[in-house]
Amino acid sequence: MGNIIKSYSESFALANAFTISRGTKTHAHVVRVEISDGTHTGQGECVPYARYGESVESVIQQIEALPTDVNRETLQDIMPAGAARNAVDCAFWDLEAKQNGTPVWKLAGLEEPKELTTAYTLSLEEPEQMRESAKANAFRPLLKLKLGTPNDIPRLEAVREGAPNSTIMVDANEGWEVPTLLELQPALEKIDVALIEQPLPEADDSALLGAGIGLPLCADESCHTTDGLNELHGKYDVINIKLDKTGGLTEALKMKAQAEEMGFKIFVGCMVGTSLGMAPATLVAQGASFVDLDGPLLLAEDRKHSIRYVGSTMFPPDSALWG
């Protein structure tokens, strides 16, 4: 008899409306998976993303269609990378940890996780609002601001005014073209931007070859699994590993190892979700150049046994939550 797999649609209100170049959200809509062997139960979470053709309904349908004898190894072949596989894969890891009385980091052959410094993301707003948000979070060492509009320079300047000492990354969410990027480059350099995340639409990546962008570029929407890494050479310096894209911790760890061998720097990011979604990502984020696991900081209320954040320092998850 196989394991029992159940999935649940859940919604968590955000502390404030959160806007990127594609739109605004007020809630984090997640799918939580439970896998039980009758004695132990593991859980995982994913955030379906419309940009990748996903919805809560489609993800739950994928999960409900799984055969009863599926395990973490066969899952990698019978379900495509994406949010649904992420929740199931991470639930299997959690189940294995509980069955063996051994934390996931040991099962995966990793070192014991340590606390991390995460970026804090500023929603795309009018410049004055972004200045005030930056000022309120100026104590944080790393800020990421959402851009991708025809009028981004005032926003850049406003954030730097509000947070003069923070390291700043920018994320255009595919909102620019090469001429826009080149036009913005002096302003980006002036405020000492450390990283530009996904400046162009995925389909236009080839335009980055020989474009002469003098700042580190990070692939997000263009980067999903290990199979796509070769296509990113010469275009990007950094890859953003998100478990909702890789389809879980199993592929994320594999991707991280291969990307490092290929010379890419590692950025570990997240969708806007709860501590359950961040917990497996903390293992991938160990030693990463950039960490952006601030999803719970954007929520009005997190899960029970949530990850502890002190300012921008996040601590490893409690086993009562995951792993």
Quick rundown:
Helix content is 30%, strand content 23%. The protein has helices spanning 56-64, 72-78, 83-100, 104-107, 127-136, 153-162, 178-190, 243-246, 249-261, 275-284, and strands spanning 4-20, 23-36, 41-46, 116-117, 120-122, 142-146, 167-171, 193-197, 217-219, 238-241, 265-268, 290-291, 309-310, 313-314. An 8-stranded parallel beta sheet has the order 5-6-7-8-9-10-11-12. Strands 1-2-3 form a 3-stranded antiparallel beta sheet.
How would you characterize this protein structure?
It is built from ten helices and 14 strands. The strands form three sheets. It has an eight-stranded parallel β-sheet. Helix 5 packs parallel to helix 6. The mean pLDDT is 95. With 323 residues, the chain is of the alpha/beta class.
Q: Any idea what the shape is?
A: globular
Q: Report the sheet-strand fraction.
A: 15-25%
The Rg value, from CA coordinates, equals: 19 Å
Provide a count of the helices. 10
- Report how far apart the termini are: 24 Å
Give structural attributes.
alpha/beta; 8-stranded parallel β-sheet; 14 strands; 10 helices; globular; single chain; 323 residues; 3-stranded antiparallel β-sheet
Summarize the SSE layout with pairings.
Elements: E1 4-20, E2 23-36, E3 41-46, H1 56-64, H2 72-78, H3 83-100, H4 104-107, E4 116-117, E5 120-122, H5 127-136, E6 142-146, H6 153-162, E7 167-171, H7 178-190, E8 193-197, E9 217-219, E10 238-241, H8 243-246, H9 249-261, E11 265-268, H10 275-284, E12 290-291, E13 309-310, E14 313-314
Parallel strand pairs: 5-6, 6-7, 7-8, 8-9, 9-10, 10-11, 11-12
Antiparallel strand pairs: 1-2, 2-3, 4-14, 13-14
